[in-house]
Write a structure and sequence with these properties.
globular; signal; 7-stranded mixed β-sheet; Glutaredoxin; 7 helices; alpha/beta; about 170 residues; Alkyl hydroperoxide reductase; about 40% helix
Protein backbone atom coordinates (compact mmCIF):
# COMPACT_ATOMS: atom_id res chain seq x y z
CA UNK A 1 0.00 0.00 0.00
CA UNK A 2 2.84 2.37 0.85
CA UNK A 3 4.44 1.74 -2.58
CA UNK A 4 1.14 2.48 -4.34
CA UNK A 5 0.79 5.76 -2.46
CA UNK A 6 4.37 6.72 -3.33
CA UNK A 7 3.79 6.01 -7.03
CA UNK A 8 0.54 8.01 -6.97
CA UNK A 9 2.22 10.98 -5.27
CA UNK A 10 5.15 10.96 -7.72
CA UNK A 11 2.76 10.72 -10.66
CA UNK A 12 0.74 13.67 -9.43
CA UNK A 13 3.89 15.71 -8.84
CA UNK A 14 5.40 15.06 -12.26
CA UNK A 15 2.12 15.60 -14.05
CA UNK A 16 1.75 18.95 -12.34
CA UNK A 17 5.31 19.99 -13.18
CA UNK A 18 5.76 18.68 -16.69
CA UNK A 19 6.39 20.97 -19.60
CA UNK A 20 3.17 21.44 -21.53
CA UNK A 21 3.21 21.84 -25.29
CA UNK A 22 1.39 25.07 -26.18
CA UNK A 23 -1.99 24.52 -27.82
CA UNK A 24 -1.24 26.98 -30.64
CA UNK A 25 2.07 27.49 -32.46
CA UNK A 26 2.25 31.22 -33.01
CA UNK A 27 3.95 32.60 -36.10
CA UNK A 28 4.39 36.22 -35.05
CA UNK A 29 4.85 38.24 -31.87
CA UNK A 30 2.32 40.58 -30.31
CA UNK A 31 3.13 44.26 -29.90
CA UNK A 32 3.27 43.77 -26.11
CA UNK A 33 5.69 40.86 -26.48
CA UNK A 34 7.95 42.89 -28.78
CA UNK A 35 7.98 45.78 -26.31
CA UNK A 36 9.16 43.54 -23.46
CA UNK A 37 12.39 44.82 -21.93
CA UNK A 38 15.42 42.72 -21.18
CA UNK A 39 18.85 43.70 -19.91
CA UNK A 40 22.23 42.78 -21.34
CA UNK A 41 25.18 41.86 -19.17
CA UNK A 42 26.15 45.55 -18.88
CA UNK A 43 22.72 46.39 -17.45
CA UNK A 44 21.57 48.17 -20.63
CA UNK A 45 17.84 47.82 -21.21
CA UNK A 46 16.62 46.79 -24.65
CA UNK A 47 13.37 45.47 -26.09
CA UNK A 48 12.71 42.18 -27.82
CA UNK A 49 11.94 44.25 -30.94
CA UNK A 50 15.39 45.86 -30.81
CA UNK A 51 17.04 42.46 -30.42
CA UNK A 52 15.12 41.06 -33.38
CA UNK A 53 15.95 44.15 -35.45
CA UNK A 54 19.67 43.53 -34.84
CA UNK A 55 19.27 40.08 -36.42
CA UNK A 56 16.87 40.95 -39.23
CA UNK A 57 17.88 39.21 -42.44
CA UNK A 58 19.40 36.30 -40.52
CA UNK A 59 17.94 33.14 -39.06
CA UNK A 60 17.97 33.43 -35.26
CA UNK A 61 17.73 30.77 -32.58
CA UNK A 62 16.57 31.93 -29.14
CA UNK A 63 17.69 29.70 -26.28
CA UNK A 64 15.86 30.20 -22.96
CA UNK A 65 17.93 28.98 -20.04
CA UNK A 66 19.15 29.60 -16.47
CA UNK A 67 22.12 28.47 -14.40
CA UNK A 68 19.80 26.98 -11.76
CA UNK A 69 18.05 24.79 -14.38
CA UNK A 70 19.51 21.28 -14.43
CA UNK A 71 17.85 20.46 -17.78
CA UNK A 72 19.30 23.64 -19.30
CA UNK A 73 22.80 22.80 -18.15
CA UNK A 74 22.51 19.26 -19.50
CA UNK A 75 21.42 20.74 -22.86
CA UNK A 76 24.22 23.35 -23.09
CA UNK A 77 26.75 21.07 -24.86
CA UNK A 78 24.15 20.11 -27.47
CA UNK A 79 23.13 23.75 -27.89
CA UNK A 80 26.78 24.62 -28.46
CA UNK A 81 26.99 21.81 -31.02
CA UNK A 82 23.90 23.17 -32.82
CA UNK A 83 25.53 26.60 -32.86
CA UNK A 84 28.85 25.22 -34.12
CA UNK A 85 27.10 23.23 -36.88
CA UNK A 86 25.25 26.36 -38.06
CA UNK A 87 27.87 29.13 -38.36
CA UNK A 88 25.58 31.26 -40.56
CA UNK A 89 22.85 31.35 -37.91
CA UNK A 90 22.63 33.85 -35.05
CA UNK A 91 22.06 32.61 -31.51
CA UNK A 92 20.71 34.67 -28.62
CA UNK A 93 20.38 33.49 -25.05
CA UNK A 94 17.51 34.69 -22.84
CA UNK A 95 18.21 33.99 -19.19
CA UNK A 96 15.58 33.38 -16.53
CA UNK A 97 17.95 34.06 -13.64
CA UNK A 98 16.36 35.59 -10.57
CA UNK A 99 18.81 38.47 -10.15
CA UNK A 100 21.49 40.41 -12.02
CA UNK A 101 24.12 38.89 -9.74
CA UNK A 102 22.97 35.35 -10.60
CA UNK A 103 22.86 36.28 -14.30
CA UNK A 104 26.45 37.57 -14.18
CA UNK A 105 27.59 34.55 -12.16
CA UNK A 106 25.98 32.06 -14.57
CA UNK A 107 27.52 33.75 -17.61
CA UNK A 108 30.94 33.40 -16.03
CA UNK A 109 30.44 29.94 -14.54
CA UNK A 110 29.09 28.35 -17.74
CA UNK A 111 31.41 30.16 -20.20
CA UNK A 112 28.59 32.15 -21.79
CA UNK A 113 30.27 35.57 -21.80
CA UNK A 114 31.28 35.24 -25.47
CA UNK A 115 27.64 34.84 -26.48
CA UNK A 116 24.81 37.36 -26.86
CA UNK A 117 22.95 37.23 -23.53
CA UNK A 118 19.96 39.01 -22.02
CA UNK A 119 17.91 38.46 -18.91
CA UNK A 120 14.39 39.32 -17.84
CA UNK A 121 14.87 41.74 -14.95
CA UNK A 122 11.07 41.71 -14.46
CA UNK A 123 11.17 37.98 -13.83
CA UNK A 124 9.65 34.96 -15.52
CA UNK A 125 6.13 36.34 -15.75
CA UNK A 126 6.25 39.14 -18.31
CA UNK A 127 4.54 40.10 -21.56
CA UNK A 128 6.98 38.20 -23.78
CA UNK A 129 7.11 34.95 -21.83
CA UNK A 130 3.36 34.99 -21.24
CA UNK A 131 2.74 35.51 -24.96
CA UNK A 132 4.97 32.60 -26.00
CA UNK A 133 3.48 30.31 -23.33
CA UNK A 134 6.82 29.83 -21.58
CA UNK A 135 6.12 27.35 -18.82
CA UNK A 136 9.44 25.50 -18.60
CA UNK A 137 13.04 25.79 -19.65
CA UNK A 138 15.04 24.98 -21.63
CA UNK A 139 13.05 26.18 -24.61
CA UNK A 140 14.18 26.98 -28.13
CA UNK A 141 12.61 29.09 -30.85
CA UNK A 142 13.72 29.66 -34.44
CA UNK A 143 13.06 33.12 -35.87
CA UNK A 144 13.07 33.67 -39.62
CA UNK A 145 14.85 36.42 -41.58
CA UNK A 146 11.81 38.73 -41.28
CA UNK A 147 11.49 38.28 -37.48
CA UNK A 148 8.59 35.84 -37.78
CA UNK A 149 8.41 32.71 -35.68
CA UNK A 150 9.46 29.72 -37.80
CA UNK A 151 9.72 27.14 -34.99
CA UNK A 152 7.62 28.07 -31.98
CA UNK A 153 8.32 25.28 -29.53
CA UNK A 154 11.24 22.96 -28.93
CA UNK A 155 12.52 21.70 -25.59
CA UNK A 156 15.85 20.30 -26.72
CA UNK A 157 18.58 21.55 -29.05
CA UNK A 158 18.54 18.00 -30.43
CA UNK A 159 14.95 18.36 -31.64
CA UNK A 160 15.31 17.48 -35.36
CA UNK A 161 12.67 20.09 -36.24
CA UNK A 162 15.08 22.86 -35.22
CA UNK A 163 17.66 21.83 -37.80
CA UNK A 164 14.97 21.08 -40.38
CA UNK A 165 13.51 24.57 -39.87
CA UNK A 166 16.94 26.17 -40.17
CA UNK A 167 17.70 24.22 -43.35
CA UNK A 168 14.34 25.15 -44.87
CA UNK A 169 14.86 28.85 -44.10
CA UNK A 170 18.33 28.84 -45.66
CA UNK A 171 17.16 27.41 -49.00
Amino acid sequence: MKQIMTVMMLSMFTLGCAQETPQVSKTEFSKEALNQKLEDENGKSTSVQEILDQHKGKVLVIDFWAGWCRDCLKALPKAEELEKNNPNIDFVFFSLERSKEKFDSSLERFSMKEKENYWFAEGWKNDFNNYIDLNWIPRYMVIDQKSGIAKYYAISPEDPEIQATIDKLLK
